[in-house]
Design a protein that fits this description.
Mean pLDDT: 97
Radius of gyration: 17 Å
Order of helices and strands: EHHEHEEHEHEHEEE
CATH class: Alpha Beta
Oligomer: single chain
Number of domains: 1
Bound molecules: NADP nicotinamide-adenine-dinucleotide phosphate
Number of strands: 9
Strand order of the largest sheet: 5-4-3-2-6-1-7-9-8
Structural class: alpha/beta
Length: 223
Protein backbone atom coordinates (compact mmCIF):
# COMPACT_ATOMS: atom_id res chain seq x y z
CA UNK A 1 0.00 0.00 0.00
CA UNK A 2 1.50 3.39 -0.98
CA UNK A 3 1.94 5.91 1.81
CA UNK A 4 3.58 9.32 2.11
CA UNK A 5 7.03 9.39 3.73
CA UNK A 6 6.66 10.30 7.40
CA UNK A 7 9.21 12.64 8.94
CA UNK A 8 8.86 13.03 12.68
CA UNK A 9 9.86 16.69 13.29
CA UNK A 10 9.69 17.85 16.92
CA UNK A 11 11.70 19.61 19.60
CA UNK A 12 12.32 18.25 23.07
CA UNK A 13 14.33 18.79 26.24
CA UNK A 14 17.60 16.84 26.59
CA UNK A 15 15.61 14.09 28.34
CA UNK A 16 13.11 13.77 25.49
CA UNK A 17 10.22 15.61 27.15
CA UNK A 18 8.04 17.53 24.72
CA UNK A 19 6.34 19.76 27.29
CA UNK A 20 6.68 20.87 30.95
CA UNK A 21 4.20 18.47 32.58
CA UNK A 22 0.97 16.69 31.59
CA UNK A 23 -1.65 19.02 30.09
CA UNK A 24 0.76 21.91 29.58
CA UNK A 25 1.32 23.77 26.35
CA UNK A 26 4.95 23.53 25.23
CA UNK A 27 4.64 27.05 23.76
CA UNK A 28 5.39 28.30 27.27
CA UNK A 29 9.06 27.39 26.70
CA UNK A 30 9.09 29.69 23.67
CA UNK A 31 7.10 32.47 25.39
CA UNK A 32 9.60 32.45 28.29
CA UNK A 33 12.50 32.67 25.80
CA UNK A 34 14.18 29.52 27.18
CA UNK A 35 13.74 27.04 24.30
CA UNK A 36 17.01 27.98 22.56
CA UNK A 37 14.84 28.90 19.51
CA UNK A 38 14.07 25.18 19.12
CA UNK A 39 10.40 25.83 18.29
CA UNK A 40 11.19 28.31 15.51
CA UNK A 41 13.98 26.13 14.09
CA UNK A 42 11.63 23.11 14.06
CA UNK A 43 9.04 25.09 12.08
CA UNK A 44 11.70 26.11 9.51
CA UNK A 45 12.77 22.47 9.20
CA UNK A 46 9.33 21.47 7.82
CA UNK A 47 10.28 23.43 4.70
CA UNK A 48 13.93 22.35 4.65
CA UNK A 49 12.75 18.74 4.82
CA UNK A 50 10.18 19.36 2.03
CA UNK A 51 7.08 18.45 4.05
CA UNK A 52 3.90 18.93 2.01
CA UNK A 53 1.61 18.58 5.05
CA UNK A 54 1.81 18.66 8.86
CA UNK A 55 0.23 15.96 11.05
CA UNK A 56 -0.68 16.25 14.71
CA UNK A 57 -2.69 14.30 17.31
CA UNK A 58 -5.97 15.32 18.92
CA UNK A 59 -4.66 15.74 22.45
CA UNK A 60 -2.08 18.37 21.40
CA UNK A 61 -4.85 20.51 19.96
CA UNK A 62 -7.03 20.10 23.04
CA UNK A 63 -4.12 21.08 25.31
CA UNK A 64 -3.25 24.10 23.15
CA UNK A 65 -6.91 25.13 23.11
CA UNK A 66 -7.31 24.93 26.90
CA UNK A 67 -3.90 26.36 27.77
CA UNK A 68 -3.41 29.10 25.20
CA UNK A 69 0.02 30.78 25.34
CA UNK A 70 0.46 34.13 23.60
CA UNK A 71 3.82 34.61 21.87
CA UNK A 72 5.39 38.07 21.64
CA UNK A 73 7.27 37.20 18.44
CA UNK A 74 5.49 34.90 16.01
CA UNK A 75 7.26 31.73 14.91
CA UNK A 76 7.99 30.77 11.30
CA UNK A 77 5.01 29.50 9.27
CA UNK A 78 5.94 26.55 7.03
CA UNK A 79 5.41 27.57 3.38
CA UNK A 80 5.49 24.22 1.55
CA UNK A 81 2.77 22.57 3.63
CA UNK A 82 -0.59 22.33 1.83
CA UNK A 83 -2.61 21.24 4.87
CA UNK A 84 -2.67 21.00 8.62
CA UNK A 85 -3.81 17.43 9.16
CA UNK A 86 -5.25 16.53 12.58
CA UNK A 87 -5.91 12.92 13.59
CA UNK A 88 -9.03 13.20 15.78
CA UNK A 89 -10.20 9.59 15.92
CA UNK A 90 -12.80 10.11 18.64
CA UNK A 91 -14.19 13.33 17.21
CA UNK A 92 -13.50 15.34 20.36
CA UNK A 93 -12.50 18.69 18.87
CA UNK A 94 -14.90 21.61 18.45
CA UNK A 95 -13.28 23.42 15.53
CA UNK A 96 -12.94 27.20 15.30
CA UNK A 97 -9.82 27.60 13.10
CA UNK A 98 -10.64 25.77 9.86
CA UNK A 99 -8.31 27.27 7.24
CA UNK A 100 -6.05 24.68 5.59
CA UNK A 101 -7.42 22.05 7.95
CA UNK A 102 -7.84 18.38 7.00
CA UNK A 103 -9.32 16.14 9.70
CA UNK A 104 -8.70 12.39 9.80
CA UNK A 105 -11.20 10.43 11.88
CA UNK A 106 -12.71 6.93 12.26
CA UNK A 107 -15.43 5.49 10.04
CA UNK A 108 -17.61 4.88 13.12
CA UNK A 109 -17.19 8.33 14.68
CA UNK A 110 -20.46 9.96 15.84
CA UNK A 111 -22.84 11.41 13.30
CA UNK A 112 -22.74 14.71 15.23
CA UNK A 113 -19.04 15.04 14.54
CA UNK A 114 -19.47 14.45 10.80
CA UNK A 115 -22.27 17.03 10.83
CA UNK A 116 -19.91 19.53 12.49
CA UNK A 117 -17.23 18.92 9.82
CA UNK A 118 -19.73 19.29 6.99
CA UNK A 119 -21.45 22.37 8.38
CA UNK A 120 -18.07 24.09 8.88
CA UNK A 121 -16.95 22.91 5.41
CA UNK A 122 -13.89 21.17 6.86
CA UNK A 123 -12.17 18.60 4.60
CA UNK A 124 -12.02 15.16 6.19
CA UNK A 125 -11.30 11.52 5.56
CA UNK A 126 -12.21 8.40 7.54
CA UNK A 127 -10.11 5.29 8.16
CA UNK A 128 -10.84 2.31 10.41
CA UNK A 129 -13.31 1.45 13.15
CA UNK A 130 -12.98 0.64 16.84
CA UNK A 131 -10.57 2.15 19.37
CA UNK A 132 -8.31 4.06 17.00
CA UNK A 133 -7.90 5.32 13.45
CA UNK A 134 -6.37 2.68 11.15
CA UNK A 135 -3.09 4.54 10.60
CA UNK A 136 -1.77 2.65 7.51
CA UNK A 137 -5.17 3.04 5.81
CA UNK A 138 -5.31 6.75 6.71
CA UNK A 139 -1.82 7.25 5.24
CA UNK A 140 -2.81 5.38 2.08
CA UNK A 141 -5.79 7.72 1.67
CA UNK A 142 -3.55 10.75 2.26
CA UNK A 143 -1.21 9.44 -0.46
CA UNK A 144 -4.19 9.16 -2.81
CA UNK A 145 -5.05 12.79 -1.94
CA UNK A 146 -1.60 13.82 -3.23
CA UNK A 147 0.56 13.99 -0.08
CA UNK A 148 4.10 12.59 -0.46
CA UNK A 149 6.10 13.83 2.58
CA UNK A 150 4.30 14.52 5.83
CA UNK A 151 5.86 16.16 8.88
CA UNK A 152 4.61 14.43 12.04
CA UNK A 153 4.57 17.01 14.81
CA UNK A 154 3.32 15.20 17.92
CA UNK A 155 2.35 14.88 20.65
CA UNK A 156 3.89 11.81 22.12
CA UNK A 157 0.78 9.62 21.81
CA UNK A 158 0.45 9.92 18.06
CA UNK A 159 4.23 9.76 17.55
CA UNK A 160 4.37 6.56 19.64
CA UNK A 161 1.53 4.94 17.68
CA UNK A 162 3.30 5.73 14.36
CA UNK A 163 6.60 4.38 15.76
CA UNK A 164 5.14 1.10 17.03
CA UNK A 165 3.46 0.48 13.67
CA UNK A 166 6.73 1.09 11.78
CA UNK A 167 5.34 4.10 9.91
CA UNK A 168 8.15 6.62 10.54
CA UNK A 169 10.81 7.02 7.81
CA UNK A 170 12.93 9.85 9.25
CA UNK A 171 13.41 11.51 12.63
CA UNK A 172 14.27 15.22 12.85
CA UNK A 173 14.77 16.23 16.47
CA UNK A 174 15.76 19.65 17.81
CA UNK A 175 17.06 19.34 21.36
CA UNK A 176 16.44 22.50 23.43
CA UNK A 177 18.88 23.39 26.22
CA UNK A 178 16.48 22.26 28.97
CA UNK A 179 16.27 19.32 31.39
CA UNK A 180 12.66 18.73 32.47
CA UNK A 181 12.33 15.35 34.24
CA UNK A 182 9.03 13.85 35.39
CA UNK A 183 7.45 10.44 34.95
CA UNK A 184 4.05 11.19 33.38
CA UNK A 185 5.26 14.12 31.26
CA UNK A 186 4.70 13.54 27.51
CA UNK A 187 7.88 12.41 25.76
CA UNK A 188 8.79 12.09 22.08
CA UNK A 189 7.32 8.58 21.74
CA UNK A 190 4.66 7.54 24.30
CA UNK A 191 3.60 4.00 23.54
CA UNK A 192 3.26 0.58 25.16
CA UNK A 193 6.58 -0.68 26.66
CA UNK A 194 8.71 -3.03 24.58
CA UNK A 195 8.89 -6.71 25.50
CA UNK A 196 12.26 -7.30 23.82
CA UNK A 197 15.10 -5.44 22.14
CA UNK A 198 13.96 -6.56 18.70
CA UNK A 199 11.21 -3.92 18.90
CA UNK A 200 13.68 -1.01 19.13
CA UNK A 201 13.71 1.20 16.02
CA UNK A 202 17.29 1.49 14.75
CA UNK A 203 18.38 4.81 13.30
CA UNK A 204 21.11 5.99 10.95
CA UNK A 205 22.52 9.47 11.64
CA UNK A 206 22.35 11.81 8.62
CA UNK A 207 23.08 15.26 10.12
CA UNK A 208 24.10 16.71 13.48
CA UNK A 209 24.31 20.49 13.85
CA UNK A 210 24.25 23.32 16.42
CA UNK A 211 21.13 25.48 15.75
CA UNK A 212 19.33 28.47 17.30
CA UNK A 213 20.65 29.56 20.71
CA UNK A 214 22.28 26.48 22.21
CA UNK A 215 20.02 23.86 20.59
CA UNK A 216 21.15 20.81 18.58
CA UNK A 217 19.53 19.34 15.47
CA UNK A 218 19.72 15.60 14.86
CA UNK A 219 18.42 14.10 11.61
CA UNK A 220 18.16 10.33 11.25
CA UNK A 221 16.84 7.84 8.73
CA UNK A 222 14.92 4.95 10.26
CA UNK A 223 16.67 1.71 9.15
N1 LIG B 1 7.69 19.71 21.63
C1 LIG B 1 6.94 19.52 20.55
O1 LIG B 1 7.46 19.54 19.41
C2 LIG B 1 5.46 19.25 20.71
C3 LIG B 1 4.66 19.08 19.58
C4 LIG B 1 3.29 18.80 19.76
C5 LIG B 1 2.76 18.70 21.05
N2 LIG B 1 3.56 18.90 22.13
C6 LIG B 1 3.00 18.77 23.50
O2 LIG B 1 2.56 17.43 23.63
C7 LIG B 1 1.44 17.36 24.53
C8 LIG B 1 0.34 16.49 23.92
O3 LIG B 1 0.85 15.18 23.73
P1 LIG B 1 -0.04 13.86 23.91
O4 LIG B 1 0.87 12.70 23.77
O5 LIG B 1 -0.81 14.04 25.18
O6 LIG B 1 -1.09 13.99 22.72
P2 LIG B 1 -1.28 13.53 21.22
O7 LIG B 1 -0.22 12.66 20.69
O8 LIG B 1 -1.64 14.77 20.48
O9 LIG B 1 -2.63 12.69 21.44
C9 LIG B 1 -2.71 11.31 21.43
C10 LIG B 1 -3.07 10.91 19.99
O10 LIG B 1 -2.60 9.61 19.71
C11 LIG B 1 -3.65 8.87 19.11
N3 LIG B 1 -3.38 7.45 19.40
C12 LIG B 1 -2.95 6.92 20.57
N4 LIG B 1 -2.76 5.59 20.43
C13 LIG B 1 -3.06 5.29 19.15
C14 LIG B 1 -3.05 4.07 18.38
N5 LIG B 1 -2.69 2.90 18.94
N6 LIG B 1 -3.40 4.14 17.08
C15 LIG B 1 -3.76 5.32 16.51
N7 LIG B 1 -3.80 6.50 17.18
C16 LIG B 1 -3.44 6.48 18.49
C17 LIG B 1 -4.91 9.42 19.75
O11 LIG B 1 -6.02 9.09 18.97
P3 LIG B 1 -7.57 9.52 19.32
O12 LIG B 1 -7.73 10.86 18.63
O13 LIG B 1 -8.38 8.45 18.66
O14 LIG B 1 -7.71 9.55 20.80
C18 LIG B 1 -4.56 10.92 19.75
O15 LIG B 1 -4.79 11.51 18.47
C19 LIG B 1 1.01 18.77 24.78
O16 LIG B 1 1.40 19.09 26.09
C20 LIG B 1 1.78 19.62 23.76
O17 LIG B 1 2.14 20.89 24.28
C21 LIG B 1 4.89 19.16 21.97
Amino acid sequence: MNKPEIILNVFSSIDGKITTAPNRNVMEWTAAGIDGEANDVTHRLYDELDCDGLVSGSESLIVWGNDWVELEKSIYEPGKSKAYIVFDGKGRIDWSQTEGLLVVTREDVSGDYIEQLESKRISYLQAGRGDYIDLPLALHKLYDSGFRRLGLSGGGGINGAFLRQGLIDEVSLVIAPLAIGGTATPSIFDSPDLTDLGGAARLELKTMKAVGEGSVWLHYKVK
